[in-house]
Amino acid sequence: MAAADRSTADSPLLGAVPALLLVSEVLRAPLGDILSRLSEVLDAVVPHPAAAELATDCAFAPFRTAGREEVAARITSAELAPLFASVPAGRPWQGTAAVGGTERPVLAVLSDVTPRKALLVLVRDDATALPEETTGAVQALWDLVTAHRKRFSAEAAPGPLARSRAMAGERARVIAELGDAHTAALTGLLSVLRARDLDDAVARERAIDLAVTALAEQRAAAARDSAAAEEPAGEAFDQLAATLRPLLGHGPVQLELAPPEPGQRDRALAAGVAHAARAVVRATVLAVLEQDPVHRVHVSWRVSPTELRATVRDDGPGDLTSAALAARRVGERLDALDGRLDVDAVPGWGTTVTATIPLAPPPVALPDPLGPLGEREVEVLALLARGHRNRAIARELHISESTVKFHVANILAKLGVTTRGEAAARFHAAA
């Protein structure tokens, strides 16, 4: 038997029955452990010290690594981005790439099972080219893993789905606010550098002050917002004013500030509300400044026992649209707090943008009706709720039918119901 034939026959991945068993082990692993298990399986045919994946469809953890800590810990998502963009879907690529801070031989496979695709990179020590049957098997297994995760995303149980969405929303919020902060800092710097009434030395000094202030504010923001559960409305507005004055202080646009009235300044705002209100106003002001001409911007806060109303009014051409504000995620930030956005644009007279955030206590969160169930029990209940019988559930989850019966009995007991139909109704109500 030729060497290549012996390798194929002896391979635990390419042998038909052992391969199916290994695939089953990978797919049965918890979602967070799938990459580690996949790396262990593939190491038998493609020895590698580390593996990494970039799956942009996954909101919970789009970038993961596995393998030896000294290699895996140094890999970054930025290093995988060029491979994600250049490797053809379904056609494994072998070569050298900058991974983990140095040039290394890699095997990269891209799956297009999901709309936004998923990349797997095996970081190798050996640059010897792998045979097509091996790379093809790696591609097939990665496609299966990607399809498996896609199904879990489509049929996610309420708890994991809520956590995934919350993390995705938080990531989007942080990215948007960092973008606004950087835009505000750069706009302030440009206004100083363009000011004709400042000589070079003074302009340079003020530009340095602006940059230092922006850096200090960015570093302090996280600590400030996490340290306090509440902020007085007056102090919250003062922090907003401190970020707006450098933005407009050296340009042709006049800034007018109307803080909360004396009787409203001590009103306690939840830190999240104060933070969102500042972000919304700053994003709106940046959108206002994109109009031409604008000579005056008026910013005010009014606080009542039930709501915070933040208003931005300008004397521009009156063509500011909701779409321009949506591009800066203003609406998304308000939606998270059940807020409302009103845009009143009058051609030739200017625009008034009002953001209203309710201050009434949020409704008490009800306990998760599926909370008593374990992860496997939720999986069984999800299939039961779709009308699957015990045999089909056993086949789907790769467990015995008696194990399914055991889980169903536990589910009925924990939910306090007596029939499968009642349990399915509980699942659908929770979802």
Automatic annotation (TrEMBL):
InterPro entries: HATPase_C_sf, Sig_transdc_resp-reg_C-effctor, Tscrpt_reg_LuxR_C, WH-like_DNA-bd_sf. Keywords: DNA-binding, Transcription, Transcription regulation. It comes from the Bacteria. One of its GO terms (biological process) is regulation of DNA-templated transcription. The keyword Transcription applies. GO terms for molecular function: DNA binding. Residues 366-431 form the HTH luxR-type domain. This is Helix-turn-helix transcriptional regulator. It comes from Streptomyces fumanus.
